[in-house]
Amino acid sequence: MALIRRTRLLRFAPIVCATITVVMMTRAPGLAQNVTEPALKAAFIYNFARFTTWPDGWPASDPFVICVVGDAVADAMDRVIKGRQLAGHLIAVSRATPTGPHRACHLLYMTGIPSSQAAQMVAGLRDAPVLTISDIEGFTDGGGMAQLFFDRGQLQFSIRLDPVKRARLLLSSKLIILAKPL
Questions:
Q1: Are 64 and 127 in a shared domain?
Q2: I need a surface site. Which of 34, 115, 116, 136 has the fewest CB within 10 A?
Q3: Residues contacting residue 41 through CB under 8 Å, at least 6 positions apart
Q4: What is the dihedral of CA 136, 141, 144, 148, to 10 degrees?
């Protein structure tokens, strides 16, 4: 009796697998469309932080501070990192202004400001251990460390290592390998 039930179940296995595959394939495009550009950038920024090592020197009770100039990305960062930790530090997202102090940040992301203003912000952080990232065209030419950009519909990034070294930051080789040439 058990053998007969097993045989009947095995006959339906391909149908069940095919049905699951079709359902997953039809739902996948809908899910992919729900990812917004700010959310995608927030995920990239978070992963940059995960693959970067900062110099020792801040107490474990202090948060890891991600400063963001640009409200849409800051909102997405809040959703992406809520409740997460990095190297034992609770992550905090701070909305920054172009003129505000930025040395308390561990990572500074800038968007929606003129490239000259971004270059001034980067110059004010020279040699400070603050990872600077932006989607502003020419950002790495102006002294920034990493620039996000779209290439053929995919979010990519480039890295300028000189400012990273001056800031005493260490980027994982996994991150450097994925970077596109400048």
A1: yes
A2: 34
A3: 73, 76, 109, 111, 135, 148, 155
A4: 40
d(CA 36, CA 76): 9
pLDDT tens-digit profile, the chain (182 residues): 444 443 443 343 333 332 222 233 333 344 445 689 999 999 999 999 999 999 987 788 899 999 999 889 999 999 988 889 998 899 999 998 887 778 889 999 999 999 999 999 999 998 899 999 999 999 999 999 999 999 999 999 999 999 999 999 999 999 999 999 87
In Å, how far from its chain's centre is CA 63?
A: 18
Q: How far apart are CA 11 and CA 22, in angstroms?
A: 18
Residues in the chain: 182
The structure's pTM equals: 0.79
State the burial class of residue 81 (Cβ atoms within 10 Å of its Cβ: 0-12, 13-18, 19+).
buried
Are 1 and 48 members of one domain? no
Give residue 150's identity as a one-letter amino acid code: F
Sign of CA dihedral 57, 61, 67, 72: positive
Same domain as 151, residue 125: yes
- Are the CB atoms for 163 and 144 separated by under 8 Å? yes
